[in-house]
Amino acid sequence: MKKIMDEIVSIDGVQSCYLVDREGEVVEYAGEDKLDKSLASALIAAITKELSAQMGITNNFSMAVMAKEKNLFLVTQRDFILGVFADPDIDTGKIRFELRRCVKAISEAL
Amino acid sequence: MNEKGLRPDVNSLDVLISLADLYVENGLIDEAKDLLKTAIKENKEEIKPYSILSKIYISEGEEKEAAEILKNAIKISPEDKEIKKLLKSLKLEVGKAETKKIIKDKKKKSKLELGSSLSEVLNNLLKVKGIIGVLVVDDIGALIEASIELPMERESTGAIISSIYDKIRFSSPDLGLGTISKVFFELPGGNIIVLGSKTLRFIVLTTKNILVSQLEDILMEGFYKTIELLGVE
Asked: Among A18, B86, B91, B188, which has the highest number of CB atoms less than 10 A from its own CB?
């Protein structure tokens, strides 16, 4: 699992990567970040939960938040959420493609 | 030198190339080109004038002409490293230029007259391939205007998406994201793009298989037009 996460953070522009369970606990983490890991993972789960609850979609959806300081990419599966923080100028197409590939590998590893 | 003795042969390759260099140094580009063309004509098997002439064309942004010269050169000397390198870099430049042209043409084609009222703007956006709905709500999620192809409850859809957007916005400082410019949801049934300002949420619903990057310009245009029409921040 750690290897897959390290692969993600090796992508140019990716700062950190969180594998979080649906309750907001950090399962695995990679990369450098000044964020409080527990808080970040809890917020990632809370955002996902809000979307699930409001729209009635439980899994297999993704989200990208483009912001001034950094971008956040979230991919939600049945058992986990993959959250990636990246530079604002990152190639969003490339990162989303890579995330899809990594999510598949994580699902298989789990 | 020629058979007449010490008088230099005016067609001598070295002389022509030196003269061409001199012309370039003095800004006489057309003269340099003519001279190099003569050099090529008189010395068809020599690579150097091809290489210099192609560089002049490249520096002037005349990639097609440069490519023609280099293609002829590579026929004469298929293994010449400099010609191969120039040709390779040129292919990339031509590729980039063509891509830029395609994007420019597409933008030109997709340039839509958005209209002068909010309902016109939203209805016109709905004409763009892939867009199936546009909703404008205020910062508390109240619907201002909507144009949707699908039979769906406009007020509640706007309010729900706005509340998710706000959840992300409120989490933004703790996540170190800074000001949010855009949120993109990729859902099983389609995509949702939310552009937000201080007082406005511009929500766009799209079909699943759409390249969002292609919609970027028109959506931004629609968003800013909406802000302008409503006179809000």
From this structure: A18
